[in-house]
Amino acid sequence: MNMNRRNLLTLLGAAPLLGVTKASAQMRQSNPRFQEISSRERIRQRYFPNLVLTNQLGEKVRLYDDLIKDKIVIFNMMYAKCEGICVPVTRNLVKVQSLIGDRMGKDIFMYSFTLKPEEDTPEHLAHYAHMHKIGPGWSLLTGTSADMESIRRKLGFTDPDPEADKDKKNHIGVIKYGNEALERWGGCPGMSKPAWIVKTVSWVDWPKQNGGAK
Q1: Is residue 53 within 8 Å of 63, Cβ to Cβ?
Q2: What φ, ψ does residue 195 adopt, rounded to 5°?
């Protein structure tokens, strides 16, 4: 799939997550203070603030404790009244949801964070979820403007160009995924073929009980 420079730079926002384990190991070796903090905990502290969000059902959930810890997760950014790529990416992820099957909501979870929390109330997100046939295991999440902006930046959905970064349409064409327990993280274009997305996400899959990770 062809990617323009801006989309590539946006996708590379996943790089800090991909490299943080190695960096943490180096810091532990050079600074005894870091030896008491695991690389997993350092990732949590740096990228996953335990903010309280609200899903499309009106339930309060914490970003790390309830949504990410010990799970395989898929992230994207969206907003309900988007006339751009939001809807095509959502429809593509609905196909991904179908391919994942009964693992959705058990050990694989999908989270869509709104870029417009001032508009996207839980009721609006619930309507969006119903309209696109979003099933269990996939949460649409909103919160305060400050919290949603913090999440956008922490998860790397940013553009290196400050002017482009102001345009919300620049942050919705990429998905990111990971296995929190194993500290494996990656990303890919949201309009990739659904089967390829599922195969890519399988790279972070849980170790198999019959002989380790595949």
Answers
A1: yes
A2: -65, -35
